[in-house]
Amino acid sequence: MYLSLVKKDFKIVLRGNLGILVAQMLFILIIISVNMGIVGYGVMVTAFGWQLLLSVSTEEKKSRSLALLIAMPYEKGKIITTRYVSPMLGFAGITLIYEGLALITNMNDFFIIKPLTYDVIAITMCAYALFISITVPLYLILSDSVVRGITIFLILGTVWIGYFLWNNINIRNSLLTMTFITNHFHIVCIIVSIISLVISRTISLQIFKKIEY
Amino acid sequence: MDYALEIKGLEKCYSKGNKVLKGIDIKIEEGIVAGFIGMNGAGKTTTIKSILGLVVPNAGEIKIFGKSFKENEKEIKNRIGIVFDNGYLYEDLKLSEMKQIFAAAYTKWDEDNYKKYIKNFNLNEKQKVKELSKGMKMKFSLALALSHHADLLIMDEPTSGLDPKIRKEFLDIIREFIIDVGKTVFFSTHITTDLDKIADQIIMLNAGEVIFNKDKDILIDEHALVKGDKTILTNDNRKWFVALEERGFSFEGLTNQRERVRQEMKQALCERPTIEDIMVAYMGR
């Protein structure tokens, strides 16, 4: 059941959008990665997640297909879980693509794309999970154009805050001062990601149960 | 007697004071085709959506195959085939991709059956849903609804907007479906000629209330379309009509007291009404 719904999400986002997505990713890689290093990876991942959520939501609102899914034996919980599984799989996919590109370019001594460290992946996943956790319930209750506006500010704000903290406060060193986080940095990121996704899913499910079609 | 669908006291209020369904009761026996008619806004779609769990009723109970829908939702949905007016299909997906979503949801999905329908309906699985005409989209919806051996087919205005040829094909498929023992069809429509052709039971809804819920033949037999000279109308016999239209020297009306009219208004001409005549008459009351 999950597989068919996840496949459906990816088909919606990739069909007709593939060219734009590739161009968008290349733009991010070239412009942002060159100037802001690893931030390009964060923006690339978030852009994909944003595109996926937006495309699926637009399609489902346009054709009212969610009503069809609900009328079928799909459980509401599973439909909502897919809303989180698809972007998280997108995150994994984009991370692999980025890392692949970084390896290829670095093999040729062409250091535009910085390779990823586990710290970067963990903190990006944490930020991405928070982004997904905020936007999924919003797509359920608000119109896509409103969420699009909120998301732009969310992405810009997150990128700016992240970049500012990275450069000025040196968040890595700040975190290192805390013994617990030093020893459990990746676990903390994973736990925060899971907690945010679980809380968000619970909220989304409650909203979804009340929506009438 | 086994019922495919039982609705008891169903109420739905979308906003305060706006009661769309006012405690409706419907019973549909297994093995029949039940037509659901009524004006726009009568509450037909809301009733169907309540049955399918798309809206939450304020009161009432829905039983399908004798089981409470709330408690056996998944099991019941597995036995229902659904066809919506607009399809509600993912427009950007190919037919084969849309099929995969259905196949994953239903435990009794029959790929051979699906292929048979796709071939019979001349559908190309590589096409996108949005590339299909309205008629083809409805055929595809029907193929999806029938490919998991549904016992109850619920359709919301499936024939609206279809040309007569496709409508005929559509009705032929319904006829073929109903041949199997225990299969039931419940569909809403505005096209009452479809009901004349295939319905066994007619349920009419008006302003959220069931006006009648009867066997089609009994319903038609009980009514008569009466035509005659206006001079034979009196204040007393005017009351025998559900709807009465007086024009010039003549009148035309629908009565639900056919025998009485025949006996006491011998100069009037009594004709067999169509479902449309009955529906329009009750709507105009």
From TrEMBL, chain A:
InterPro entries: ABC2_memb-like (IPR025699). It holds the Pfam family ABC2_membrane_5. Keywords: Membrane, Transmembrane, Transmembrane helix. Coiled coil: none annotated. The chain crosses the membrane at residues 12-32, 38-56, 84-104, 116-142, 149-166, 178-200. The keyword S-adenosyl-L-methionine does not apply. This is ABC-2 family transporter.
TrEMBL record, chain B:
Gene3D superfamilies: P-loop containing nucleotide triphosphate hydrolases (3.40.50.300). One of its GO terms (molecular function) is ATP hydrolysis activity. Pfam families: ABC_tran. It comes from the Bacteria. Coiled coil: none annotated. SMART domains: AAA. PROSITE patterns: ABC_TRANSPORTER_1, ABC_TRANSPORTER_2. Residues 5-232 form the ABC transporter domain. This is ABC-2 type transport system ATP-binding protein. It comes from Lachnotalea glycerini.
